[in-house]
Amino acid sequence: MEKEQYRSVIRFLFLDGKTCEEIKTKLDAVYGNPSPSMTIVRYWFNEFKRGRSSVFDEERPGRPADVVTEEIVEKVHDMILADRRTKVREVAEAIGVSYGTAFNILHDNLGMKKLSAR
């Protein structure tokens, strides 16, 4: 069962006037072991008590999880074709990603094992 579905059940029981302990008991009786912990039930009970109505996670600020796009891969590919002696560090600085991300683009996306030899 998805976490949003558990939260919906918690919200329903909260609106029905049940206490935290009663909600946890009902969840354990119906779902058994995979039901949320008492800490999670308490957290969502208090969230609904404060007036929250959504059972979905709120958007979080920060960097997107996936920074490797087709555009970036194409840009790296063009850089390498222009100068085969380009270093991974130079690629990373040019496209604005970490060394590890640049290495993964070269290795995983473009299938390149070695850029240049000394």
Structure description:
This is Mos1 transposase HTH domain-containing protein. It holds the Pfam family HTH_48. InterPro entries: Mos1_HTH, Transposase-MT_Hybrid. There is one protein chain. The protein is an all-alpha fold and 118 residues long. Helix content is 58%, strand content 0%. The chain has 2 domains: 3-50, Arc Repressor Mutant, subunit A (Orthogonal Bundle), CATH 1.10.10; 70-109. Helix 5 (88-95) crosses helix 6. The chain is rod-shaped, with a radius of gyration of 25 Å. The mean pLDDT is 90.
**CATH top-level class of the largest domain:** Mainly Alpha
Taking pLDDT < 50 over at least 5 consecutive residues as the criterion, the unreliable ranges are: none
Query: Structural class of the helices, strands and pairings?
Result: mainly alpha
First CA to last CA: what distance?
55 Å
The tally of beta strands, per DSSP, is 0
Radius of gyration: 25 Å
Q: What is the helix content?
A: 55-70%
Quick synopsis:
The protein has 118 residues and is an all-alpha fold. Helices cover 58% and strands 0% of the residues.
Topology:
Blueprint: H1 3-15, H2 20-31, H3 38-49, H4 70-82, H5 88-95, H6 99-109
Question: Could you list some keywords that capture this structure?
Answer:
mainly alpha; Arc Repressor Mutant, subunit A; 2 domains
